[in-house]
Amino acid sequence: MKHFLIKTSLFLAIATISSCSFSQNKPVPEGPMVLISTKYGDMKVVLYNQTPLHRDNFMKLTKEGVFDSLIFHRVIKGFMVQGGDPNSKRATKDQVLGDGDLNYTIPAEIVPGIIHKKGVIAAARNGDEENPERRSSATQFYLAQGKVYKLEEIPVIEQKMNIGASQSLFLKMKSEKIDTLMLFQMARNKEGYDKLIEKLKQKAIREVEKNPVRLTKQQVESYTTLGGIPHLDGGYTVFGEVLEGFAVIDSIAAQPTGANDRPLENIRMTIKVIKE
Predict the structure, then answer these.
(1) Could you report the per-residue pLDDT of 200-214, keeping only the tens digit for each?
(2) Bridge-partner residues for 144, per DSSP?
(3) Which end of the chain is more exposed for a tag (fewer CB within 10 A), N or C?
């Protein structure tokens, strides 16, 4: 499969999440708003002004009706619900989905402090190996469900995030040395290739150790009350959040699925702009 917040298996959380509502004590983020409608209800979503490329692209596609009648084609309870594959509009029941897109991608807008708390909308993308710049799919997106974490789990989360950060940095360094690595391969110099790979891995680890990932108090509060998917932080562009309709995410996530995590019954969406 082509697009996903990773199209490979990802630390699948398995907790059931209770429905939540947006706290009236917290200010509503500034930005345009859209309404995502499904047979399980509506979700009012604000798009962040801090991610203008994704905001403007999503607004444009919404106004053009691109998302209407598409389905949530990948659903993993306790993790996320994903949709936006253009091929899903007329897909047959057993058709494998996830590779559909438009003929462009969007530069990453990964903003520090914008996290994968429950209810955020984020862009799907190809994995780091083939997409080290972490450019986003034009159409595919996911809504985070995740799980609520205990306070004592936070250190483990941070450890996983630092491992992920070093792996991502290694892949970036590897892409920068691709010409040298190819020369080693062409010369069948396995020793030289392996030494350079190991050198890059250790360098990436050292760089992350100099400035390790640490969750802020606000992030810890979000993940231990609202819940979310912290190990995705820093890896995907989060460009908005649900203000009303958290229970809709839970309802979609609870549906039985078949091959490739596709719901057995189609869950279609329509999206309209409710605030410019």
Answers:
(1) 999 999 999 999 989
(2) 80
(3) C
